[in-house]
Amino acid sequence: MRGLIATGMVVLMLACASACIARTTEEYPVVTAAVRPEKATVGSRLEYIVTVGEGNVAGIEITPPETREFIPPPHDAAEEPSPAAGVLPLYIIHSAEKKKSGPGRGNSVSLVMSVAYYRTGRHPLPTVEVRGADGVAIGYRVPEVMIEASNPSGDLQEIEPPLDLGGNYYRLLIVVSIMGALAAAAYLVLRRYESRRENDTPVPYEIPAIDEFLARMQTLRARGLVEEGKREEYVVEASRFFRMFLSRLIGIDAMEMTGLELADSLERYLGQTVYSRLRGDLSRVTGLWDLAKFAEFAPSSAALGDNLELAMDLGRRIAREERSGRS
């Protein structure tokens, strides 16, 4: 009887243990890992995916490797390592990204990494730490990858020649030259514009001395002083206008000169040859003005009219001779 009771208790305990193990297995998710491609050359990018699914993924923690670059220690400490062995890494993790398909049961969590291996041979992928909600680590089978040399035979590879920049170089020179010319032209235009702005005050037009003299003599004629016999007023005005004309034309102060001094100044300026052609008319014009200042001499209106015309003609001839002498 006691044997039967002991046997029943053992069976019951085994059944409970089996149920607990089955429940625990059902609660823990499945971890799978894969790499694409499984065979590659040195430096090629690989896609390494660790997926947690087929269970309750709530609270699952996936931690990528702490170091993105792994340099393995030498296998034999007595052996002298090559210089490249201490520098060339086994692999480099270029990126790592977590992806979730959705919360709750029946979903999955993945860690997608981009890895490149730089040593030939068969190598395991980096180990990713996976822990459940209770903090217990969950194991999985780590895949391996076969890395081959990119040029195992050591044959010379065909290298593309550098881009011929001859045409581009000359085009660049042309573009730079054109831009420089445009910049210089813009600078000159700006300077000219600023200079014109500084000198925007219009320069007054200066009436030539002969034109001013003739205009004044025309005004004197229009006043009718000759016809009215106002000889003194006419003589004073005509003499003043003629002396103002010579002062501007040859640069002398003719206002206070006598008739003789005026003739000497004109002869020195125009020269003896030119002055000899003007001496007679100059003497007649200024001589009448000098005599008219005396009361005993009373020139007629006709004489005053001829004097006015002769003075205007004499002014034209003097201006013409002065212009010829300058040219």
Account of the 3D structure:
The structure is a single chain. The protein has 327 residues and is of the alpha+beta class. It has two domains: 26-146, Immunoglobulin-like; 209-326. 46% of the residues lie in helices and 17% in strands. It is built from seven helices and ten strands. It has a five-stranded antiparallel beta sheet with strand order 1-3-7-6-5, with no helix packed on it. Strands 2-10-8 form a three-stranded mixed beta sheet, with no helix packed on it. Helix 3 (209-222) runs antiparallel to helix 4, helix 3 (209-222) packs antiparallel against helix 7 and helix 4 (231-250) runs parallel beside helix 7. It is rod-shaped, with a radius of gyration of 60 Å. The model is unreliable at 19-26 (pLDDT under 50).
Low-pLDDT segments: 19-26
Q: Kindly provide the radius of gyration, computed on alpha-carbon positions and rounded to a whole number of angstroms.
A: 60 Å
Order of helices and strands: HEEEEEEEEEEHHHHHH
CATH class type of the largest domain: Mainly Beta
CATH fold call of the largest domain = Immunoglobulin-like
Largest sheet, order of strands side by side?
1-3-7-6-5
CATH architectural grouping of the largest domain: Sandwich
Q: Determine the fraction of residues in helical runs and give it as a percent range.
A: 40-55%
Question: Count of helices?
Answer: 7
Content of β-strand: 15-25%
N-C termini distance: 159 Å
- Sketch the major β-sheet: 5 strands, antiparallel
Structural class: alpha+beta
Which whole number gives the mean pLDDT?
A: 80
Overall number of domains:
2
Count of individual beta strands: 10
Label the overall shape: rod-shaped
